[in-house]
Amino acid sequence: MNQSSGSYLVLLRRRLLVAVLTLLGVATVVFSLVRLLPGDPAATMLAQAGAAPESIAALRAELGLDRPLLVQYGDWLGGVARGDLGRSLLTDRPVLELIGEQWRATALLASFSFAWAVALGVSLGAIAAYSRRRWLDWLTTGAAVTGTAVPVFWSGLLMIWLLSVVLGWLPPASGSPLSVILPGLVLGHAAAGPIARLTRASLLEVLSQPYIAAAHAKGLSERAVLWQHAARNAAIPVVTVAGLQLGFLLGGAVVTETVFNRPGLGRLLVDGILWRDLPLVQGVALAIAFTYVLLNLVVDLLVGWLDPRRVAMMAAVQGTRPRFRRRTLVLLACSLVLLAIVLLAPLLPTQAPNSTDLSKQLDPPSSLHPLGTDFYGRDMVSRLLHGGRATLAVAAAAVVFAVVLGGIAGLLAGSMQGWPGQFWVGAFDLMLAFPTLLLALLVVAVLGPGLPALAVAVGVASVPGYGRLVRALTLSLQRSAFVDAARAVGVGPLRILTHHIIRNIIRPVLALATIDLGRAIISVAALGYLGLGAAPPQAEWGLMLYEGRGYIASAPWASFVPGLAITLTVLIVTFLGDALVE
């Protein structure tokens, strides 16, 4: 056995051990979160029958809900080890059987979406790299970024309207073998953006290396240089980010299955949360998280096979400084205008956002209502401004929450030695084992619907990203020359932390926060679309899209207005964040 094979086996053993520990942690987190869900499952099951408290107590004892939590946890964990996830409280069927019935639909959707995302993302990224700074580069990059900025619940409605209602090319709902194509294209296009952007950056970095120039000097053809020298090295970071997109696809399936009325684990999970079916919620969340962990294990081992030296992800090639400054000023101006409109919404001379007039139901745009009215005759301009204020405020609060909590945890993880520091690293990895939307969905289910709970849920799901970034920056700065010089002159650890480390990590953290704001806006709107955000009649962009989904053919403005507002806002924020990162 050579040294490379031995190193790979060591990597395999370590990753398998970490995966087992992570899966155990996932099971513990799922059990704890589900037990925090508000309400009593026994009371929910007997609510329609008007059962007496004695009957509810008897059902709780039958279900084992009156036993200590540690006993319940031990019994449930033992059942998981035996492949027994319990029985659904509503259908009285084995949870594993219900998951098995829905798993195929979700696996088919995720597989088709992943294949389309990789094919589209790699193709767009390669075209952009070979057309650098030409019109084709900007066109393909813009297409990739737009796919990321358009929420899947709006692009799904658009595709249903265009390809199913108008053109009649594809079936809109499940029941046909072709029904997976439409939701798969929508979900895959959203996941293709990061793959395309990293493919472009990775290829540009590899093609600028000396060994590529040497290959050209030897007379090798462009195709030989690409496939024999550039492709494998450029594939390493692409495979890594493609694996991370699996979490997005598994979480996005929750929304996509709702939009397209498809069966699957996502809809099963939402139904379980709404009906307080504890075994069902535990089983589905565990199945999704387990799948995500195992798939990332496979991706990690594949990257180790591609490059035994475990090369780091390549940095994106930066643009020229003058062009960056002009673009940044334009984006900053757009952001300030957007912020001013949202903050001043209550002061603008518009109609009350919740004022109904049933005589003006779904009126088209006119001089009195420039963007039309909704089903209840409410002015779309007023609801757009007030809904934007709610959506952006919740998204901003979520990012601030994630930055503060993740920053503090990252500083502790980077400053502590031994097991205390490793504890925080393990906590970050455990949270990253859940797809972002799944974790946010579980947290908002525990806290209950409402905008404050929505901000906390979206923020909690983003905490590990900031924690890992701050930890990495802290460890790097602690080994820097100026920190060593400060220690040499007697500066204390606390002053080094506040005056040398924190001051130097603020800029990259703020840059990440700007990019993350776009993702937070989409997450807030997605949870609002699922009915876990603002309560009607309060205006919020995701809720507005949900209310207008049924009128996309007869009154398209009811869904186009909030959908376009989300897309444009996310595009502005994303491009501004990219400029700040550069």
Can you characterise this structure?
- With 582 residues, this protein is an all-alpha fold.
- The chain contains 21 helices and no strands.
- It has helices spanning 3-35, 41-45, 53-63, 69-81, 95-130, 135-149, 152-166, 181-207, 210-217, 222-259, 265-274, 278-306, 321-343, 380-415, 419-432, 436-447, 451-478, 481-488, 493-529, 541-548, 557-581.
- The average pLDDT is 78
Number of strands: 0
Biggest beta-sheet profile: none
Distance between the termini: 44 Å
Uncertain residue ranges:
308-324
Note the beta-strand portion: under 5%
* Rg of Cα set: 25 Å
Give the SSE string: HHHHHHHHHHHHHHHHHHHHH
Shape: globular
Quick recap of the structure?
The protein is mainly α. It is built from 21 helices and no strands.
